[in-house]
Amino acid sequence: MRQVKLGLWGADVSEVCFGSLAVSPLQGRLTAEEGVSVLRYAFEQGINWIDTAEIYDNYEQIAAAIKHHPEVRIVSKSYSVTAEEMNISLEKARTALNRDTLDFFLLHEQESALTLKGHSGAWEELRRAKEKGIVRWIGISTHAIEGVRAGALLPGLDVIHPILNYQGLGIIDGTLSEMLDAIAFASDLGIGIYAMKIFGGGHLTRDPKKAIDFIKSIAGVQGIALGMSSQAEVDYNLLLIEGQEVPESLQKKVRHRERKLFIADWCQSCGLCVEACPQGALSIEETAVVNLEACVLCGYCGRACPHFCLKIV
């Protein structure tokens, strides 16, 4: 697998990052053991880094998968606001992953300079952790153009993980063209960029080659996070990334079916899912209602629901 360098001073990693949301309890598509098996298979194929987050609740699963793969790097993220909260998040990750030094740690879902200002305590704690050698590289994830632009100017930032796909699906504050300009701005500053949601939360899977080719055509993007939940999906995606022919038999195995957010009829209309949705795709009428065009199937709403009403099917 082709190796890339994340920005001017970042890590050398495989072009594909394993997006572990697809094997986490947050989406519930696999058992923990099945997820470990898929992760280990991906490592054997040359994928050498994993994207996760505190909210995914899968540190133990990842720890089991990397037990005999010390070379694998891990990106995690948290919503921490204060220094104290960030310190707790870092120690939780170090303990659960059984690693004294974390490879990457990001502020999760930053939207603008204002959002970053509100998380300044957490960011300064990340910087201190980097100085102490607790974390090697720090950064942000974002669904916003202004998040990319403001993040690029943060002192000490190494990497940005933005939403990006050829239709601009999921960008919360502007157009695809504006996002590309923001990414170019960050990249020119030497910041590492790896893209998320390149299939638009499943909306663009009918032409996966187009989705991948679009990302690979952008000079400022070095890596791609891909969610995979089977060995066949690993094989399929790696063939696409490498520009090779995908056998018909493999295409049939991973035929991308339509997926959607299911809302159970026992919804209590509490609104916690609406607050948790980064896309503004949910609203409350008599019960929670989803705008399928806006939903990117991240599953964050399901984690927020106290009555377990929401899941991706």
List the helices and strands and how they pair.
Layout: E1 3-5, E2 12-14, E3 16-19, H1 32-44, E4 49-51, H2 59-65, E5 73-78, H3 83-97, E6 102-107, H4 113-118, H5 120-132, E7 135-142, H6 145-152, E8 159-162, H7 176-188, E9 192-195, H8 208-216, E10 223-227, H9 231-241, H10 248-253, E11 261-263, H11 272-276, E12 282-284, E13 288-290, H12 300-304, E14 310-312
Parallel strand pairs: 3-4, 3-10, 4-5, 5-6, 6-7, 7-8, 8-9, 9-10
Antiparallel strand pairs: 1-2, 11-14, 12-13
Helix pairs in contact: 1-2, 3-5, 6-7
GO molecular function: iron-sulfur cluster binding; metal ion binding; oxidoreductase activity
InterPro entries: 4Fe4S_Fe-S-bd, 4Fe4S_Fe_S_CS, AKR, AKR2_Oxidoreductase, NAD(P)_OxRdtase_dom_sf, NADP_OxRdtase_dom
Pfam families: Aldo_ket_red, Fer4
Structure description:
- With 313 residues, the protein is an alpha/beta fold.
- It has two domains: 3-253, Alpha-Beta Barrel (TIM Barrel); 261-312, Alpha-Beta Plaits (2-Layer Sandwich).
- Helices cover 35% and strands 19% of the residues.
- It has helices at residues 32-44, 59-65, 83-97, 113-118, 120-132, 145-152, 176-188, 208-216, 231-241, 248-253, 272-276, 300-304, and strands at 3-5, 12-14, 16-19, 49-51, 73-78, 102-107, 135-142, 159-162, 192-195, 223-227, 261-263, 282-284, 288-290, 310-312.
- It has an eight-stranded parallel β-barrel with strand order 3-4-5-6-7-8-9-10, surrounded by six helices. A two-stranded antiparallel ribbon has the order 1-2. Strands 11-14 form a two-stranded antiparallel ribbon.
- Helix 1 (32-44) crosses helix 2 (59-65).
- The two termini are 32 Å apart.
- The relative contact order is 0.13.
